[in-house]
Design goal:
Elements: H1 2-16, E1 22-23, E2 29-30, E3 39-45, H2 50-66, E4 70-76, H3 82-91, H4 104-107, E5 117-122, E6 126-132, H5 137-143
Parallel strand pairs: 3-4
Antiparallel strand pairs: 1-2, 3-5, 5-6
Length: 146
């Protein structure tokens, strides 16, 4: 009887969890409200983009060193599917989450036409800057201090 009640409770609680707003390419779900107190950096990249290749180490460093105050997310401009998504992120040596699906509509932005493009959102997911061209840790930190 107690085991059945526990099972019912566990199933009920599992159903109460809010669905994620998006998934990354490894299947991990995220909710934007979990980022409400952080800056959100969304970087569009592609494997064929030389400046993107140059910029990724800067984004990795930013995510590692400033994860307490900001979140770095990647968006693959070419929108490959399945295993190809993962392979391209590995090829680029990306260490931060990469959207599994194109995020522009959900973020209220237009998909960029030039790469790399980085969108900087203030806490509360308010767009503060659109940066075109390769960024550095310093330029991204400057954009989050405005």
């Amino acid at each position: 009887m107690i085991a059945r009640a526990c099972l019912v409770l566990i199933l009920w609680l599992a159903g109460c969890a809010a669905p994620p707003d998006f998934l990354d390419i490894s299947g991990t779900g995220y909710r934007y409200q979990d980022f409400d107190d952080k800056w959100v950096i969304v970087n569009y990249w592609a494997t064929w983009c030389g400046p993107c290749i140059k910029e990724i180490p800067e984004l990795n460093q930013l995510a590692r060193e400033h994860g307490d105050s900001l979140v770095v997310l990647g968006a693959n401009f070419d929108e490959p599917e399945g295993e190809e998504q993962k392979q391209q992120a590995v090829k680029m040596k990306i260490e931060f989450p990469v959207y599994a699906e194109e995020p522009a509509a959900a973020l209220g932005i237009a998909k960029p036409e030039v790469l790399p493009t980085t969108f900087v959102f203030a806490p509360g997911l308010k767009l503060k800057a659109t940066l075109v061209g390769p960024q550095t840790v310093a330029s991204l930190l400057a954009a989050t201090s405005e």
